[in-house]
Hints:
274 residues, alpha/beta, five-stranded parallel beta sheet
Amino acid sequence: xxxxxxxxxxxxxxxxxxxxxxxPGLGTPVPGSPPEAGRTDVNYPHLxxxxxQLSLTDVTSSGATTADVLWxxxxxxAPQADALAADTDLVTVTIGGNDIGFAxxxxxxxLPPLARLKHLPSLxxxxxxxxxxxxxxxxxxxxxxxxxxxxxxRRSPNAVVLFVEYLTVLPLDPHIRVAGMKPAQAAAGRxxxxxxxxxxxxxxxxxxxxxxxxxxxxxxxYAGSEDPWTVGAFVPTxxxxxxxxxxxxxxxxxxxxxxxxxxxxxxxxxxxxx
Length: 274
């Protein structure tokens, strides 16, 4: 595909990332994917692929960390980076939150105690909430994200690489009350989101790629807002969405923002063929 062209039809697209990209509980599980991955057919990679007629390889997976992109097998899957090839045209990646226990922290802070114990992703993520461990992981995250970017570029040297930020979950205004959280807990959650955004920038810089800045774009669409793109605290049900994760409107918004970003890269008014 000509990267300077607005026509992405048939382009080889690889989607990497965690549950903020895989959309657990929002649609039909992708055939052949592990149930634990929560990879569904209405996540932003699938929406984008349908909009632009891309040839999609979606390896996004709930609970994934940078290690699961780089080298580790999760749920019996190959490392996500193994999906990359020399002829890959487009890569999106939303990763890093599980490295620092972002969703786990929000669940631990906002869910009722019994729901918290049942639905926190794993003991490993609970450990990430310990201050000493968290501080170390925060310090390591930018380098881990840079490693992700460097590996993407080595595997797919000609691809357009887009690091997609995490959608805003908590209101940026500290005076807005977050259901179930004390002000200090909400402030800590917002601080984690800032670390994620900075690390995402580091990943893009290491790749020669760019950042799709969905965090700022979703600032007024936090969980509990009039037009939310994420969900807040609730007792999860079997097969439903996860607390403190994107809803369907959020995935649709992210897919559109990526399409608009690609349009700007190609100097066209829309991501559709001109």
